[in-house]
Structures are given as structure tokens and as C-alpha cells.
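Example with several molecule types.
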Amino acid sequence: VSVEQVRAEIAETADAVERAARVLGVLHSGVLEAAGRVGETTRGTDHPAVAQALTRLAEAAGEAREARSLLAEGVDHARRFAGAL
Amino acid sequence: VGDLGEVVAALLAARDRIGRIADEGRASRGKIAEAAARFEAVIRGSADGNVLVAADRWRRAEHHLDLMIGRLLTGAMAIDEYVRAIAPGASGSSDVEAGRREQAEPPVSGQRLLDESQDAGTRMDRFQRLITAKGDDAVDATKSTAQAIRALTHRDDGSAQVAHTEQPVFQARVQPASVPDLLTGVVTAAIVGVTGTRAFGRLIRRLRERRERGDDE
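Resulting C-alpha cells for the full complex:
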């Protein structure tokens, strides 16, 4: 396997991960939007299920943000490696 | 949103939207896992710092995506629990039906979402339009159904207003049977029919599977 092939393979992989990270950004916004809608619809309600739903959705948004950040960091390092070959 | 039917419709639409987001997250996770495995195959044996960091970050991202999906499923179940509390029988469809619909209607791919968002307009606008259309349809249909029923029963005096979010919604459960209760039941049935809760059956089934495997949270 030539260096060029490895470089191309890594570039392709990094692009795929970058696309997934961008999708995650959209999903993160979608979770926040859904949580906002649930909060607005249930305003004034103190049912424990509502609190549970809002908490879990907020946590889900946090996980999405963290995953996206990690993906982007990994992409940077992968490209740095490919560039140094 | 003051009418119980509208509240239920909005919550079911949000729940279904969350289910679709979980589907998208699962699809993205698969792509990331595939890319990470491919990357590790290409750089096998390398001790380069950048390589190790990249592989580590992608694997950790997969873990966070798993957590995200788990949180979404739990959140969706909590929404459903609340809907059942304020309008018993208004949520969910059988797992069998959901499974059939799942086979017939594969989830929208993340790549398609992304491509569409880049064509024109903002990504958020596109995304919201795509995944809320179904819920909005449900709300519109519910309003139409409620209006039609009110007209038929000649009770257009507001008596169908059975619950408000600013007030204890459980009042709707303990009130004696009446025309508003009948309306609520019919409207609720309409909501269930329109929203097509395909995602919920899958959510429940997957959560059960996760719990059985003992790896949920």
C-alpha cells in the first residue's frame, strides 16, 4: 500500500466522520427544539414524567454536543497525521 | 395550547420527532463505527500520537452517541407516560404495527437531511420542516375533528375545553362522563390515527431489549 493510498483512505474516512458530525449538529438542534416544545406545552405542570422527559432530553442534547466535539477533534488529528505522511 | 386534544397532539408530535432523531443518531453511529474501523485498519500498528488520539476520540464519540440515544428513548417514554396520564389510551400503537411500518418506511437518512439543508435555506429550517410536518398535520387534523364534532353536537359554547396546561390536567380524568369527555375520546382517537406513532413502538421495543441486555445507563 502506497503512502498516497493511505493518505487518500484517511482523507475519505475523515470526510465521512466530518459529515456524521455535521448531522449530529443538526440532531442536537432538533433535540433542543423538541425539548423546548415539550416544555412549552407542559408549562405549569409538575408531573414527574414531565420533569423526567425534560431532564433526559437535556442530557441527550449534551451527549450529542460532546459526541460532535469529539468527532471533530478526531478528524483534525487524522488529517494532521495524513498531512505529515 | 389550551385544549387537551391540542396538548396531546403536540406532545405526541414531539415524541415522534424525538424517535426520529434517535433513528438518525443510530444511523450516524453506524457510519462513525464503520469509519473508525476503517481508519484503524489503515493505520494498524502505528504509534503516531495523532492516530491514537483520532481513534480514541471517535470511539468515545460512539459511546456518547449511545448515551444520547438512550436518553432520547427514556425521554420519549416519559412523554408517553405523561400523555397516558392526561389522556388514557391516547398514545402508542402495537409493536407489531410499528414493526410493519418500520419495514415499509425506512427512516430518513442523515445524509439526505444534510444534503437538503445545504441546497437552500438554513439547515434548521429544513430540518424542522421535514421532521415536524407530520406532527403539524396531526395538530391541524385534530383541530378540524374537534370543530366538526362540536358542530354535530351543537355545543359550540366552549364546553369542550377540558384542560389547560396552566391548571391541574388530572381534572380531565376524574370528571364524570359528559359530552366533553366523549369529545376528548373521539379527538384522542383521531390523534392516534393521524400521528401514526410508528416511532413509539420501536422505542419501547428497543428500550426493552436494552434493559434485557442490562446495558441501559
